[in-house]
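The material for today's practical consists of a large collection of protein records. Backbone structure tokens are a discrete shorthand for how the chain folds in space. An example says more than a description, so a record of this kind follows:
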Amino acid sequence: MSTTTSTADSSSSSSAASSKKVSAWLPISAVIGTSLAVAIPLIILRRQRRAGLHSALNSSPPPPRISRTSISQAPGPRASPHPTTSRTSEKQSESEFSSPGVGELISAVSKADLSSSLMAFKAFGIATCLVAVGAVTVTWSVKSVLGVKDAQEFGEKMRMTFWSALPTNLLSSIYRPPATDEERHDAYDAAPFDADDGWTWVEAEKRLIRAYDEGGFPLWARTAMREVEAEARVERVRRQREMDEKAVRRS
């Protein structure tokens, strides 16, 4: 029974470690690749349609020639109240430059042959290569410029840079202490300052339950704010210690 429990614990820890190792660049690269893979075939189909329309217009026979006598004998042009010719040309130009709809795409896919399939596969391959090269280039550039090794170190460095760049008055507004002496006294009784060294969520839950039993929701809310501030202090101290250790190792 103990062997089974240890095996389950090791498998759960390994699965948790593998899930943590998943880089944040993978979903971004997948989204960019999917967008390019969908957009490039649409652009190619639009160009093919425009080229086919252009060739059809060029292949149409020229209008018949009219002699000078017929021109002189022909009556003058009448001003039609509804210019159908201009409207037809405007509709043709609009249809030429409009994006294809879903029905046109479905019909184009149904009429696709081997050459169009190869062209679509080629476009998808080019888009995938471009996304891969772009992702590798951006990742390598960021790692070289910032001097980081993985996404976790990049996130920690960005957080430290962000917190150091914020003005002091904004930080004091975010981490606002209790307003009155009574609130400070009640919150200090529930979560004292010396709890930063051994602060845990288990003890915090006990203090929150005790605060709710003693003072109801108002004291619970103030105690929860106090616990959040204590957790933020512990997290900042831990990250600062890790950054100092890494700086000492590099030096």
In short: The CA atoms of residues 125 and 210 lie 61 Å apart. The longest helix spans residues 201-250.
